[in-house]
Write a structure and sequence with these properties.
By secondary structure, this protein is an alpha/beta fold. It contains 15 helices and 15 strands. The chain is globular and about 60 Å long.
Length: 443
């Protein structure tokens, strides 16, 4: 099991020198257990491997094993790991200025990143709030909606994942994340069903009715509802794609009630789903859009974009911002983001993601169709979910793939889905290998 295209990391096939996790990864795991909170990293005899280097669609671990990465490092590496233009821009920026004072004396490159992000917005005039993580962008969006409407209640959706900071966690659905912190979570959130592609028309209608009930009658704690937050495609829930027409109807409903519609595109946006913003693909017309993950090209950066009429609900700074952070507009991350946005805008990243995603889905379906119970392969752009149905089955396949030199992650409420979010630089040979490996891991 040592097929290898040879050469530098990037376009290689997996090469396993030792069965993963190897002795170096195991030793690191023991050291990690001694210093990190035990909740953070899952450790077992089969998991994890410790990364040492990465480029393109390859990762090398501490034991010298080379992997094919179908995770994109949680979707961050849309352009590939360590894309040369991003590295060059970041290195040049580091030689000039590593840190600035984002809300006091801003780095010039912060302004450039803001101008580029404003062009991404689907509105005539856009304002932007920067952050470092996806959850920060969601927090900014929720605050913006409250300022704009004066109504603190929120409608979110079953299966939603918006982050784990307290505000974002309140609109995240999965009980596993919520349960330990329920006493601290805001109680003014209503969860509506998320109607998936191919569902009965009655299910989509029931979802709209649940949203409207929240907008009319308020949240469970009695607070009036001023915001609806939704992912154009639910990623962590298992690549759940909405029923056709639902997002258009949702947009009209939210506007009719004078609420703010928030699109969480942390995972979906910047070309991953075959368009600069996935909202346009599904017919969603948001007031606010959250982006992150791929935005920094590997550096931590996120943003909440919004149409000016909503964003101007924020007060003008009188010398002390009411929403800021020490690393706001970090210059190195902003320089990297400008390069990423260049690629999205000028190098056809959304089109490449759509084409490659179709090729990968076709290869997977071809190899899996002969199984006694072929799993469903769901896709939008280069975000794919293979739904095996049984609880834990996606996690089992992910572990089996690791032994074959392929990195993938489980998703879904019960780990029943295998989620694939690879870089757009996958080669044809890597696609074929990935499809073969998934087939071998399933049986």
């Amino acid at each position: 099991m040592t097929r290898d295209a040879g050469g530098a990391l990037g376009a290689r096939l997996p090469e396993l020198r030792v069965p993963p996790p190897g002795p170096a990864s195991r030793a690191f795991a023991r050291r990690l257990r001694a210093v990190e909170s035990r909740d953070v990293t899952y450790l077992s005899d089969e998991w994890p491997v410790f990364w040492e280097a990465a480029a393109g669609a390859n990762v090398r671990d501490a034991d010298g094993n080379v992997y094919l990465d179908l995770t994109g490092a949680f979707g961050v590496a849309l352009l590939g790991h360590a894309p040369p233009p991003v590295l060059e821009a970041a290195a040049a920026q580091m030689r000039r200025l590593v840190h600035g004072m984002g809300d006091v004396h801003p780095p010039a490159v912060k302004l450039e990143a803001l101008e580029r992000l404003a062009r991404l917005g689907p509105w005539r005039e856009t304002r932007v709030i920067l952050g470092s993580s996806g959850a920060e962008a969601v927090e900014a969006a929720l605050k913006t909606a409250l300022l704009a409407t004066g109504r603190p209640g929120v409608v979110a959706f079953d299966g939603a994942y918006h982050g784990l900071t307290l505000g974002a966690l309140a609109v995240t659905h999965r009980g596993h994340f919520r349960a330990p912190f329920e006493p601290r979570l805001y109680g003014g959130v209503t969860f509506a069903p998320f109607p998936v592609e191919g569902c009965d028309a009655a299910e989509a209608q029931a979802s709209l009715e649940a949203v409207e009930a929240g907008l009319r009658h308020g949240a469970p704690n009695g607070d009036p509802v001023g915001a609806v937050i939704v992912e154009p495609v639910q990623g962590r829930a298992g690549v759940r794609i909405p029923e056709a027409g639902f997002m258009q109807a949702l947009s009209a409903l939210v506007r009719a009630h004078g609420a703010v519609l928030i699109a969480d595109e942390i995972f979906n946006g910047l070309g991953r789903c075959g368009a600069p913003l996935a909202s346009t693909r599904v017919g969603l017309e948001p007031h606010l859009v959250c982006v992150g993950k791929a935005l920094g090209g590997g550096f931590p950066l996120s943003a909440c974009l919004g149409e000016v009429s909503v964003m101007d609900a924020w007060p003008e700074s009188g010398g002390e911002a009411v929403h800021t952070s020490t690393f706001l507009g970090h210059p190195v991350a902003c320089a990297a983001a400008c390069t990423v946005l260049d690629a999205v805008e000028r190098e056809g990243v959304p089109e490449r993601a759509e084409s490659l995603g179709r090729t990968l889905a076709d290869a997977l379906e071809e190899r899996l169709c002969a199984l006694p119970s072929p799993p469903e392969v769901r896709r939008m752009g280069l975000l794919l979910g293979i739904d095996f149905g049984a609880a834990g089955s996606g996690a089992r396949v992910a572990r089996a793939l690791l032994r074959r030199g392929v990195l993938a992650l489980p998703a879904g409420e019960t780990g029943q889905v295998l989620q694939l979010a690879p870089p757009v630089v996958l080669t044809g040979e890597q696609v074929a290998f990935a499809a073969d490996a998934v087939r071998a891991a399933v049986v």
